[in-house]
Amino acid sequence: MPGNSRSPLLEVKNLKIEFPTRRGTLVAVDDISLHIDAGEVLGVVGESGAGKSLTGMSIIGLLEPPGRIAAGQILLEGRRIDNLSYEMMRKIRGKDIGAIFQDPLTSLNPLFQVGDQLVETIRTHLDLTEAQARKRAIDLFKEVGIPSAEERIDHYPHQFSGGMRQRVVIALALCAEPRLIIADEPTTALDVSIQAQIIELLKRLCREHNNAVMLITHDMGVIAETADRVAVMYAGRIAEIGSAENVILRANHPYTHGLMNSIPAIGHDVEALVQIDGAMPRLTEIPSGCSFNPRCPQSFERCLAERPDLMPVGKSQVACWLFDHDQKEVAVGE
Amino acid sequence: MNDMTGQTLVEVKDLERYFDVSPPFLNRVIERTGKIYVKAVDGIDFEINRGETFSLVGESGCGKSTVGHLLVGLYAPTRGKIRFEGVPLGGENERRKNIDIQSRMQMIFQDPYASLNPRWRVSKIISEPMRIHKHTDDKSRFQALVEELLAQVGLAPEDGEKYPHEFSGGQRQRISIARALAGKPEFIVCDEPTSALDVSVQAQILNLMKDLQRRLGLTYLFISHDLAVVYHISTSVGVMYLGRLVEWSDKKTLFNAPRHPYTRMLLDAIPDLSMTGRRRTPVAGEVPSPINPPSGCAFHPRCPFADSRCKTERPNLIATGKTHVACHAVEEDRI
Amino acid sequence: MVAVYPGWGELSMVKVLAHSMDGLKRALDSDIFYSFTRSPVVVAAAIVAVVYISASLMAPWVAPHLVFDVKTLNLMDAFTPPAWYADGNMSFLLGTDDQGRDILSTILFGSRVSLLVGFASILLSMVIGVGLGLISGYVGGRVDSFIMRVADIQLAFPAILIALLFNGLARGFLPQGMHEEAALYVLVMAIGLARWVQFARTVRSSTMVEKNKEYVKAARVIGRHPAAIMIQHVLPNVSGPVLVIATISLAIAIILEATLSFLGVGVPATQPSLGTLIRIGNNYLLSGEWWMTLFPSAALIILVLSINLLGDWLRDALNPKLR
Question: How confident is the model over A68-125, as pLDDT tens digits?
């Protein structure tokens, strides 16, 4: 059961990610904080440009230069990992933190048999002989649902279909028994029917191994199925964070609200979908105050001037002045 | 309102498109392999009525995109007929000669970044159909018409002077729509127009498309893999699997009472946003390769109701009740 | 803004000017120009190239002496060493050759010929190469196979050989009297034909990529003719690498021309190029009049090197955008 009283597995504190360019420094992720407990799935949702992938990359230590962590801390089981050397980070990557990326085609080296890639990763992090590692790899294949595991362990990536390849990638991510998995759009490139299979698999594995998962995606449906808690990101900040049920069904932040309502649903007959006018601002044009204010149907003067931090609303946290209880007039969102 | 709504605008019969993916001649001789074909579209019939939106739905490799390409002439059919207002259509060269018919159909594409020529200004992009289809000979009118179109799709007149890279994905799709409208078409093929867009932008574009359809009396062929979007925008829906049409009916019937096992599995596989706690039943197996489709009914390896007839005999699309279904089990009233 | 062409519409003149100013501003503001200013070697190469090329193109007005006007020559001036020698002459900065021609001026005039032949032949190569590359990439199928096989066969032969071959054929076909007049044209065609393959291949592969993009499909749906699509849609998008190849090919063409002239089958004697000068000077190299061959050689090296450096930089600068 997520959220027990032990300290969280992963803690991100006031993370700030910057990109220095010759026209000035662009802030892509601006002072976000979140945590994941062991055994829970945190969904990080947002549209393109919100900064969710960058957050995930910075946790694994794969942030591409010139991007850099400008401020904040990332703690894994209480130890800081954002300031480690390349060598130290390499040991953690794979062993303590596993990664699943969007495109299974490029996640695997096409020139090597999948078994070799698994064995290599296993032996890098665990002290096993070749034979032991191979047995472990075959077991993993069976666990992720790849039929004829003993045979397919010696196949090349191109011999697998898309869904099967993603299973191989999941096996690769799990093989050194990491406690945290960062999954960046793991089902986006897959067909709907395969998506369902992969989501089922991820959920089962997390339950059985007690992993924590950071599931980064723009697909709200996947989040609804999989996540325990959800963080909604907008223009590099967290707009709302809370349990999946609260955020999806009882959204507080006007952005989350608009987002949920703009998704078409079967059985939901409307002439026009609710739309949020405009688009997410580019990094060079982030508005002052609350970055959502130009598009927000409920913005008022304070929103243009001051940027809201996360504040408690019920059991969620929302970054919106509508919910500031110290205000004389409290404008209640729907 | 256009009083011709309801008449058949586009009719497709026995449409087939094969692609030759054989290895080169020399390889074939040495390795003694025959020619290899991908049956992207393997015998399809349907009709689209004027003023309606007909959606083609299916997973990757089912051939829905190829059908779209066939309708606008980007591919020529290997077999079968496409009729537009009763007039049969040919391949690309033939259509260029019959430009007055070809100008009445247009296409919008999935990738907003590749749909616009990066070296052309937006006004030039939008005015291209006008110049070719010669709806007006007065070139000075082009500028005014372009600005009208930009306004219609929700952009500013100054945007005509800019280049595509200065716009976001959603805005580029609007430019593509403006370009499609410039030739005053009656029929637009939309190939996954919102799949590459964020959810909130998708809502804007879908609303725009519906609005334009209402105002201009457009007919859409909407191709998508997203069933929720299809539900929102369609009048009628066709479900494709491995190049074949397995079910075709109006929207409500298809979503409320799907008959074909594949349609039912597809609807079951959709994630549940209302979180009613319904567990998804994942579909077994994966889509086979279109090079070597299964014999008989293409879905039989994954179908829980398959019997011996399904393995050998290909089912035809039969009208039953309010729908058309290609399934032996449905025909035999087994399900 | 005054309307220069009455009846044209003042608005269009203003628009054209505004567009070019806007384009210039964007170019100066761009990342390419930024990387240009960051590299001192390239800036130096660019300055050298620009100065050299302008000076030689304007040779008739810039050169100290009009060396190819026979009346101005004086055999008494022959074999004068460079000016810093005791028996040198300030008006002949780099010395004179066996006919009393000022070396500096001959270099300027010679470079002019070399450059003109170089530019013209590159232009020809570009037209043939880009054209064939576009057709090959867009049409595909047998046309593509045929053109590429021709290209492959041609690549098997060294460029010199092809140029010599073409030269010989032309001389064989043309009547004796026409040789002198036609020599320049023949030379341009020979070098042009030797160098088209690079352009064709690059343009072909870029075209094959562009052909599958949706904007080309959109143009086909509109009903545009394939030729119109190739020229108006595809060509602007594949011409980036062409510029890079053109710059480097220019250097190669100049050397090719110099070699052919050195061998005596290039430019006619009445319009010597750098190659001719090197050949003439070569005869006197060992007899002590070293300046006659050294300075034209140095000039050739400087010209080719600066163009090459520019081409290298251009390729690297354009690279991320070519992705």
Answer: 899 999 999 888 888 888 888 888 887 889 888 887 778 888 898 988 988 988 888 8
Best of C139, C206, C214 to disrupt the B interface (most B CBs within 10 Å) is C214
Tokens of C225: 């003719």
- Among A203, A234, A265, the domain-final residue is A234
Residue of B nearest to C215 (CA): B115
Residue A256, domain member (yes or no): yes
The answer, for C8 touching chain B at a CB cutoff of 8 Å, is: no
Averaged pLDDT score across all residues of chain C: 82
Contacts of B183 in chain C (CB under 8 A): 222
CATH homologous superfamily of C115-323 equals MetI-like (1.10.3720.10)
Cβ-nearest to B283 among A193, A268, A272? A193
Average pLDDT over residues C264-284: 83
Structural domain count, chain A: 2
- Whether A226 and A274 map to the same domain: the answer is no
On the question of pLDDT at A241 being above 90, the answer is yes
Mean pLDDT computed over B11-37: 85
Q: Provide the pLDDT for residue C14.
A: 65
Q: What is the pLDDT of residues C161-194, one digit of tens each?
A: 888 888 888 888 887 777 777 788 888 888 898 8
Structural domain for A150, as ranges: 37-61+85-234
Instruction: Tell me how close the Cα of C132 comes to any Cα of chain B, in angstroms.
Output: 22
Domain assignment present for A25: no
Residues A223 and A91 in one domain: yes
Q: Once rounded to an integer, what is the mean pLDDT over residues C110-134?
A: 92
Q: Which domains does chain B have, with CATH numbers?
A: 8-104+186-287 (3.40.50.300), 118-184 (no CATH)
Q: What is the pLDDT of residues B58-87, one digit of tens each?
A: 988 889 999 999 999 999 999 999 999 989
| pTM for this model (two decimals) | 0.84
**What number of other Cβ atoms are within 10 A of residue C310's Cβ?**
22
Contact flag B74-C236 (C-beta cutoff 8 Å): no
- A134/A106 same-domain check: yes
The CB-based long-range contact list for A302-307 (8 Å cut-off, 24+ gap) reads A302/A327, A307/A237
Tell how strand A68-76 and strand A10-21 pair up.
Answer: antiparallel
Please report residues of B whose CB lies closer than 8 A to that of C231. none
> Does residue A229 sit in the same domain as residue A116?
yes
> By CA distance, what is C18's nearest residue in B?
B161
Select from A158, A230, A245, A266 the residue whose CB has the most chain B CBs within 10 Å, as the one to mutate to test that interface: A266
Among partner residues A264, A279, A280, which is closest to B228 by beta-carbon distance?
A264
Q: Are residues A255 and A215 in the same domain?
A: no
Q: Is residue B311 classed as helix, strand or coil in its secondary structure?
A: helix
Q: A218 and A260: one domain?
A: no
Indicate if A253 and A188 belong to the same structural domain. Answer: no
* Six token digits for residue B225: 């893999």
At CB < 8 Å, which residues of chain B contact C? 69, 72-74, 92, 95-96, 99, 102-103, 105-107, 109-111, 114-120, 128-129, 132-133, 176, 179, 183
Chains that touch B (3 or more CB pairs under 8 A): A, C
Q: Which residue of A has its CA nearest to B214?
A: A271
Q: What is the pLDDT of residue C206?
A: 94
Chain C residues 98-137 within an 8 A CB cutoff of chain B: none
Residue A155 corresponds to which tokens in the numbers above?
A: 């196949």
**Residue B108, min C-alpha distance to chain C (Å):** 8
- pLDDT bin (cut points 50, 70, 90) of residue A235 is very high
Residues A56 and A105 in one domain: yes
Please report whether residue A95 resides in a domain.
yes
Please give the pLDDT value at position B143: 87
CA dihedral angle for residue C38, residue C40, residue C45, residue C47, rounded to 10 degrees: 80
